[in-house]
Amino acid sequence: ITIPTKLSEIKIKDYQKYISIYETLAKEVDKDKDGNPKFSVEQSNFLNIKLVEILCHIKINDINAINVNDFEDVLKTITNTFKLEPKLVRHFKIKDVDYGFIPDLEHISMGEYVDLSNYISSIDTIHKALAVMYRPSTKYKNDMYTIEEYESSDKYSDVMKEAGLDVYLGAQVFFYTLGIQLAKHTL
Questions:
Q1: What angle separates helix 12-27 from helix 165-186, to the nearest 10 degrees?
Q2: pTM of the full predicted structure?
Q3: Which residues are CB-neighbours of 86 under 8 A, at least 6 positions away?
Q4: Is residue 26's pLDDT more than 60?
């Protein structure tokens, strides 16, 4: 069993799969005063099993054979992985292709801006948002680089499902921080 200990070890497609299951179940239950779902013990156990199944790539039958204490240790490790603070990932590789973050946000095209705005807020489309933000790097000079011209998110969206979760969360934190700074300067 391989347990993810870094956000980069959790693929976008696996994260999306788990969140889809979680959100579907959350819609069916009551919420507490803070709006959090109130899952039963059975539902919590189901979600924990699905989390381990999906993120550790292990079959349900194999999970059922795991000692309870070992299962709890696996869950604790995964939970601690999600607590790691993401940082903006400027470059990453998928199948020997280096993908770089948009090097100059001030000069993004209207198409990039519209697509990014449409895709970044839904867990179902984060791979498409990544396909806008990250494209194959084409030229390097010291710390400077260029990326492929933007055509559409469709070109790399399926590839981005293989990216690590650190890529998405780092970009999300980057844009959130950027938004806060812009709001402060606007005032």
A1: 70
A2: 0.88
A3: 7, 166, 169, 170, 172, 173
A4: yes
